Amino acid sequence: MKYNITVIPGDGIGPEVTEQAKKVLKAVGNVFDHTFLFKETLMGACAIDQTGNPLPEETIELCKTSDAILFGAIGDPKYDNDPTAKVRPEQGLLRLRKELGLFCNVRPVKAYDTLIHNSPLKKERIEGTDIDIYRELTGGIYFGIKELSDDGKHAFDGCSYTVEEIERMAHLAFQSAQKRRKKLTLVDKANVLETSRLWRKTVTAMASDYPDVEVDFLFVDNAAMQLILNPKQFDVILTENLFGDILSDEASVIGGSIGLLASASVGKENALFEPIHGSFPQAKGKDIANPLASILSAAMLLKHLGLLQEAQVVEAAVEKSLELGITTQDINPENAFSTSKVGDFIADYIYNQEDSNINFQNVHMGQSTII
C-alpha cells in the first residue's frame, strides 16, 4: 500500500523530532511492505519568515490531498515576546484546523511503569493511569468573536457552541469509551456558563444511545484537582476547547515528561498528528529533544490508516526504549541519548524485534542495523 503523508516540520525542535518519526515510519514501511510518500511543507514562524504567511495556500492544498499529516511544532520567541505582533505562528495552526475541519483532538495520557519515578506525583496515585482526553478543537472561545475597544481598556472574547458541534465530538468520545473501560467523564462549568449547560444537556440526551458506557460529570476546577489526586478514576474525558487545552497539559506531568504525549486532530476527511510539547526553542539544533511523542504520534497516524499491527510494533519499540533507558536527557539526564540515537534504536527495533540487545549495543557504539 502507498500512503501520501504531508509533513510539516514547523518551528524549534519540530524538524528534529519529526525526522525521527519519519525514520520510524520508513522502517515500518520496509518491514510491512508499505510505501510512505513524504512531502514537506511550511507552517508557523518559518513560513512567516519565508512567505510572510503562517499558513501558505500550497500547504492547505497539500494537506487536503494527503492521507494524513505529520506535524512537528509551532512557535518562536520573537513572536511570543511581542504582544503587538499582527501575524503570529499560531494563526497558521488555528486556520489549518478550521480549513480541514479538524474538530476533534485526542490526547492519550499514560503512566509508563519505567517512568513513574520521574513524575512529581506519588507512585500509588498514578500507577496504572491510562486516559484518553477528547477536546473539541474548532469552536469555543478560541474561535469566537474578539473585540478590543478603541481606547484599549476593554476586551471581549466570545464563546459559542452548537448542538451539532457537541454531538459530533461526543459520538467519538462515546465510541472510544466503548472500546476501553466504558466510562466517559464530561468536564464543563455548567454552574456558571450557558455553553457548558448546553454541553451537559446534549451529552445527557446522547447517553441513552450508549447504555454500556457509564457517564459522569465534573466541573472543570474539580476535574483539574482530581487529575492530580486520583487520575486512575478517568477513562475517557470529554470537554470543550479551552478546558481541554489546559487539562491535557496538566495531565502531561502524570507520565513524567511532556515529551511522551502524542495527539491526533481529526475531522471527517483529514487528520493531523503531532506531539504536544511545543517548539522548545532552547533545544533547537542541539539533538537533545525527546522524539518519543512525535514517534507515538506516528503510531496514532498508523492506527488512523487502519494499520493496527504496525502501530502496536511502534508502541512496543517505544516501551522497549524506555525499559532499556535509551532516552533523552529530560527522562534520563545522567545517561542521556541524543534525539537521533533514540530514533535509530526504535527503527532498529522494528527491524529486529527479537534482538533488542543487539539494538542496544549498536546505539551505544554509534552504529545502526538499518540497511
TrEMBL record:
Mg(2+) binds at residues 221, 245, 249. It catalyses: (2R,3S)-3-isopropylmalate + NAD(+) = 4-methyl-2-oxopentanoate + CO2 + NADH. Keywords: Amino-acid biosynthesis, Branched-chain amino acid biosynthesis, Cytoplasm, Leucine biosynthesis, Magnesium, Manganese, Metal-binding, NAD, Oxidoreductase. Its EC number is 1.1.1.85. GO terms for cellular component: cytosol. Residues 4-346 form the Isopropylmalate dehydrogenase-like domain. It is found in: Cytoplasm. It comes from the Bacteria. GO terms for biological process: L-leucine biosynthetic process. GO terms for molecular function: 3-isopropylmalate dehydrogenase activity; magnesium ion binding; NAD binding. InterPro entries: IsoCit/isopropylmalate_DH_CS, IsoPropMal-DH-like_dom, Isopropylmalate_DH. Homodimer. Catalyzes the oxidation of 3-carboxy-2-hydroxy-4-methylpentanoate (3-isopropylmalate) to 3-carboxy-4-methyl-2-oxopentanoate. The product decarboxylates to 4-methyl-2 oxopentanoate. Belongs to the isocitrate and isopropylmalate dehydrogenases family. LeuB type 1 subfamily. This is 3-isopropylmalate dehydrogenase. The lineage of its organism: Bacteria, Pseudomonadati, Bacteroidota, Flavobacteriia, Flavobacteriales. The gene is leuB.
